[in-house]
């Protein structure tokens, strides 16, 4: 019996050849709006968690140090090709989002597009994002979420049986997940299909220091 992580690696390897046909054009506006909220600066060290084929790259500045990870080697190869073609200083590795092989306080920005709803344990992935971000670092999230102020109805639960079999959980709530991981949410707005797709920008708050 395959565990969820192994199954995700297998199915995204299978999805890789046709991924752009499904995930590129329909999501361009949502990606642009989400990434447009980031406070970009030259030289920032940036991590994309779940890079896919690199569809976020056209909406990001080139003067950054870019790192990308994905479970599926086929996705990583396509990301490298796209990053090279667009002129990025980019490094890509096969890695599990729930166990990042990076030191603490390493990145200025972490991007998690269409990955929080896929991870088997999103609280672990977000805790890892929090760990590798510098104090006051930015977390940029765009995904399918259940509204924070509503309980999941029977219709959505029934549909979720289908969507989770394909790739994604549509019953997760962004606010509790990000707040529970220690982030301060600065922006949370719908970007596609009514309120199903939401973009969030959050900060890793610096630890308080006692004044002497």
Automatic annotation (TrEMBL):
<keyword id="KW-0808">Transferase</keyword>
<dbReference type="GO" id="GO:0032259">
    <property type="term" value="P:methylation"/>
</dbReference>
<feature type="domain" description="Methyltransferase">
    <location>
        <begin position="46"/>
        <end position="137"/>
    </location>
</feature>
<dbReference type="Pfam" id="PF13649">
    <property type="entry name" value="Methyltransf_25"/>
</dbReference>
<dbReference type="InterPro" id="IPR050508">
    <property type="entry name" value="Methyltransf_Superfamily"/>
</dbReference>
<dbReference type="InterPro" id="IPR029063">
    <property type="entry name" value="SAM-dependent_MTases_sf"/>
</dbReference>
<keyword id="KW-0489">Methyltransferase</keyword>
<dbReference type="GO" id="GO:0008168">
    <property type="term" value="F:methyltransferase activity"/>
</dbReference>
<protein>
    <submittedName>
        <fullName>Class I SAM-dependent methyltransferase</fullName>
        <ecNumber>2.1.1.-</ecNumber>
    </submittedName>
</protein>
<dbReference type="InterPro" id="IPR041698">
    <property type="entry name" value="Methyltransf_25"/>
</dbReference>
